[in-house]
Amino acid sequence: MEKQTTASAIISFAEKLEDSSSKFYVKLSEKYEQGREMFMAFAKESEKNKVLIKRTYLETITDAIEACFSFEDLNLQDYLVETDFKKDASYSDALKMAIKLEEKASKFYMDVAKRSESLLATIPRAFKKVAEVRNNRRLKLKNLLNSLKCN
User: Fold this and answer.
1) How far apart are CA 107 and CA 42, in angstroms?
2) How confident is the model at residue 116 (pLDDT cuts 50, 70, 90)?
């Protein structure tokens, strides 16, 4: 039997993902001065992502879509990432955790976007937009990590 995930489960997961991401980046900004501004920007961006996804859902999802549409074979457990870091974690280790978070988040949003293409265009568009935001973060973090290795 195929695993089916409802639209509301996807939205709930996305909200939790953005909330945990925001908290993670706030913690990083408090701990690591060298990335403080970027981390705070990422935290604020996560709040905006959450609003975009939730608003798109509320504006476009009907009872018919909620009752009849499911995201088949989408296992939300595949996108979970640890966001608690050790107090003694190095800046480099924190960046690696952040990169992993962004990779999983970007993949989640792209997978949902692909699976929702048969719905109203605003739905996959919102998920693709957030996936792009998350992928851009990943690239910034990778560049930052690479610059640390070069120094």
Assistant:
1) 17
2) confident
- pLDDT tens-digit readout, 64-80: 456 566 777 788 999 99
DSSP string, 33-81: GGGHHHHHHHHHHHHHHHHHHHHHHHHH--HHHHHH-EEET--GGGG--
pLDDT in tens, 119-145: 778 889 999 999 999 999 999 999 999
**Contact present, 20 and 129 (Cβ < 8 Å):** no
What are the CA-CA distances from residue 150 to residues 67, 143, 144, 147 (Å)? 53, 11, 10, 5
> Please, what are the domains in the chain?
4-150 (1.20.1260.10)
Q: Which tokens is 140 given?
A: 């910034």
Amino acid at residue number 72:
E
User: How far is residue 136's CA from residue 127's CA, in Å, rounded to a whole number?
Assistant: 14
